[in-house]
């Protein structure tokens, strides 16, 4: 229905009403789009790496906008609706709507003409004032503002949700990797010797439980370091045990008549029994430890060719069954990996020192026990004591470097003396093997790295340093 000419004076009010409807529709459209985008933003945080998210985002926004425009267009104000509103606003007692309906339906031209004149005359006298219904505007604006604020909040929160999900996903993935690595080590230990590694297996099982309940990736890093530390500790014990076995076998092979020498030389017998006892301190199976103890008791009571031969066979068996290859493989070592044995080059081998009674013998008196050509020694010592050759040698600090493949021999008034002889006669001498000193410092370093006392950028430097000075 067209707006009658007689009501032209009301057109500004009609346009205001239509403008009001358009503004309210725009505010509502913004509110609807904001409401749609709030879950879309949160979904974006969840589907950040999903390529289909962009398509979903654009499609839903365009679809929402299209549906909203169609809805507001279909529900746009009609002429009759505007007439009713104007009648109410202008208090015309429904003259406007009545005139429009009468003009549309009446067949009497005379009656319509008379009414047109009356309505035109009446409208010309009406005070044209239009109430915008500010309360309705304010409520819609408030709703739109709230939705926009929520949308902004969702935009700000979405990256955090994404990071949280990514962190949770990364934590779970890393958790699975750590547990799988521990399971792999456990499986390897069970295949080698469950009884022998019983204590280590128990510690790893506890470590696995902690990993399964870890809440932060830092905890998993610490667990991995703890796993490496446990394996390194076991590897060091294996290497030390193999060294003790090798030295004990060398001692057994020093003489073709060792049986009589042990009977005639209590010191040699004492050294042999002491080496057997030291070997028992390592990680051996119950059966191996019992056999060693039986042979030790037998040799202590009466050393015979038979029990010495049995000891040699047992040592060979221990050497074959206690290789370091499985542990090195578990640690994933290369040629210079963690825990691998790297022989120090010239000038890098820390030697074994003791308080030398004189400047004679091998090595350099007054040296630092650290710089030398060769394979490296056993450590460093200092102290004072009485010389077996007579005289007082309580000099402040004298060091003698002893390569690991050589024996210290000093000439005295009553013959030659080895380092072991000097140590027995001078109990005050401090003789600390380098490997013991290294082990203490290495343990402290690992503890500091594990406890996050050392900054992350320096952790690799600490590890490489201790690998480079490993005995």
From TrEMBL:
Bilayer-crossing regions: 21-40, 52-74, 141-161
Annotated stretches, region: Disordered: 328-399
Phylogenetic classification of the source organism: Bacteria, Bacillati, Bacillota, Clostridia, Eubacteriales
Residue ranges the record marks as coiled coil: 190-245
Comp. bias intervals (Gly residues): 348-384
Protein name as annotated: Uncharacterized protein
Biased composition (Low complexity): 338-347, 385-397
Keyword line: Coiled coil, Membrane, Transmembrane, Transmembrane helix
Signal peptide start and end residues: none
Organism the protein comes from: Alkalicella caledoniensis
């Amino acid at each position: 229905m067209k707006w009658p000419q007689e009501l032209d004076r009301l057109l500004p009010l009609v346009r205001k009403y239509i403008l009001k409807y358009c503004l309210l529709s725009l505010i509502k459209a913004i509110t609807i789009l904001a409401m749609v985008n709030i879950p879309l933003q949160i979904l974006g945080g969840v589907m950040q790496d999903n390529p289909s998210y962009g398509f979903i985002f654009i499609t839903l926004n365009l679809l929402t906008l299209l549906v909203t425009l169609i809805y507001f267009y279909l529900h746009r104000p009609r002429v009759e609706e505007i007439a009713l509103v104007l009648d109410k606003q202008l208090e015309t007692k429904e003259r406007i709507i009545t005139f429009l309906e009468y003009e549309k339906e009446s067949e009497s031209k005379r009656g319509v003409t008379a009414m047109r004149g009356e309505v035109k005359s009446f409208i010309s006298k009406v005070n044209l004032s239009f109430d915008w219904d500010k309360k309705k505007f304010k409520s819609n604006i408030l709703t739109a503002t709230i939705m926009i604020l929520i949308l902004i909040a969702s935009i700000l929160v979405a990256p955090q949700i994404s990071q949280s999900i990514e962190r949770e996903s990364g934590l779970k993935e890393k958790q699975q990797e750590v547990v799988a690595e521990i399971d792999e080590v456990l499986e390897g230990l069970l295949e080698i010797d469950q009884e022998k590694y019983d204590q280590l297996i128990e510690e790893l099982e506890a470590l696995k439980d902690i990993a399964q309940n870890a809440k932060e990736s830092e905890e998993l890093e610490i667990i991995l370091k703890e796993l490496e530390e446990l394996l390194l500790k076991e590897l060091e014990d294996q290497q030390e045990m193999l060294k003790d076995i090798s030295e004990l076998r060398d001692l057994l092979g020093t003489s073709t008549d060792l049986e009589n020498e042990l009977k005639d030389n209590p010191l040699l017998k004492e050294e042999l029994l002491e080496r057997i006892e030291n070997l028992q301190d390592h990680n051996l199976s119950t059966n191996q430890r019992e056999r060693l103890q039986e042979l030790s008791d037998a040799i202590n009571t009466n050393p015979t060719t038979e029990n010495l031969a049995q000891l040699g066979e047992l040592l060979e068996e221990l050497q074959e069954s206690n290789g370091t290859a499985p542990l090195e493989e578990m640690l994933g070592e290369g040629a210079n990996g963690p825990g691998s044995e790297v022989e120090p080059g010239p000038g890098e081998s820390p030697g074994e020192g003791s308080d030398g009674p004189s400047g004679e013998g091998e090595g350099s008196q007054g040296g630092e026990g650290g710089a030398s050509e060769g394979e490296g020694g056993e450590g460093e010592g200092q102290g004072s004591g009485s010389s077996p050759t007579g005289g007082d040698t309580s000099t402040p600090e004298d060091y003698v470097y002893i390569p690991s493949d050589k024996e210290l021999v000093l000439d005295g008034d009553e013959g030659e003396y080895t380092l072991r002889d000097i140590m027995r006669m001078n109990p005050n001498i401090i003789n600390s093997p380098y490997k013991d000193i290294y082990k203490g410092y290495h343990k402290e370093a690992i503890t500091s790295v594990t406890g996050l006392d050392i900054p992350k950028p320096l952790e690799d430097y600490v590890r490489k340093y201790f690998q480079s000075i490993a005995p």
